[in-house]
């Protein structure tokens, strides 16, 4: 399992293709959930090419099942704020060496340079039925914030057959459009960022921080 804190991720070069961010709501087949809404509306945007792929992934779903996007882009400033906050927590716990602080913080919060959401390359998403009710995924999106860690990994052992099937349905439509999953979070998928490049063997990321 490759984690974002793996030093090989930051070594991946970025050849940014310069695509703009695009509003997810412009694709009517996809539903945008407001629970992570930020002041600037960044959460509702991803790179134009990522949005196009999401649209195609959505077309692959059975009738009545839709993608529900929770969070797309995150501003580099917001990511840096979260990283600094975590570093401060570690400093208060007694760690003072700057390199060690960075290493430990990177294990839990992505540094801006590798954060897939900052590149507009990542989405947190799940599936909903025709009435807008979330399908049973055997755990909630961002479950690690609510003490639900056990069900966060995509391959969490002990999932019900229904939850397993629903995760597989989500994975199938996204993988067919080139997305890769972050294995510790079943809801996190990305295309074109450094992590994606490392996992797929691409020579460079096509999306860097924006
Ligand atoms: Zn995510």
From TrEMBL:
Keywords: Cell wall biogenesis/degradation, Dipeptidase, Hydrolase, Metal-binding, Metalloprotease, Protease, Zinc. The keyword Flavoprotein does not apply. GO terms for molecular function: D-Ala-D-Ala dipeptidase activity; metal ion binding; metallopeptidase activity. It comes from the Bacteria. GO terms for biological process: cell wall organization; proteolysis. It catalyses: D-alanyl-D-alanine + H2O = 2 D-alanine. This is Dipeptidase. It comes from Streptomyces noursei.
């Amino acid at each position: 399992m490759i984690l974002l804190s793996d030093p090989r991720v930051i070594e991946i070069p970025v050849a940014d293709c310069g695509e703009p961010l695009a509003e997810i709501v412009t694709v009517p087949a996809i539903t945008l959930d407001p629970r992570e809404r930020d002041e600037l509306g960044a959460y509702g945007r991803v790179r134009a090419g990522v949005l196009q792929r999401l649209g195609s992934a959505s077309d692959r779903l059975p009738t009545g099942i839709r993608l529900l996007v929770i969070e797309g882009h995150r501003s580099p400033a917001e990511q840096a704020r979260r990283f600094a906050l975590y570093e401060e927590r570690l400093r208060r716990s007694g760690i003072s060496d700057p390199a060690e602080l960075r290493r430990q913080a990177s294990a839990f919060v992505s540094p801006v340079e590798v954060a897939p959401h900052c590149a507009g390359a990542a989405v947190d998403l799940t599936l909903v039925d025709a009435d807008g009710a979330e399908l049973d995924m055997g755990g909630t999106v961002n479950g690690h914030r609510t003490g639900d860690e056990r069900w966060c990994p995509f391959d969490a052992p002990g999932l019900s057959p229904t939850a397993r099937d629903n995760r597989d349905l989500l994975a199938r439509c996204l993988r067919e459009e080139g997305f890769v999953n972050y294995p510790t979070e079943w809801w996190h998928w990305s295309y074109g960022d450094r992590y994606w490049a490392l996992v797929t063997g691409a020579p460079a990321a096509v999306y860097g921080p924006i």
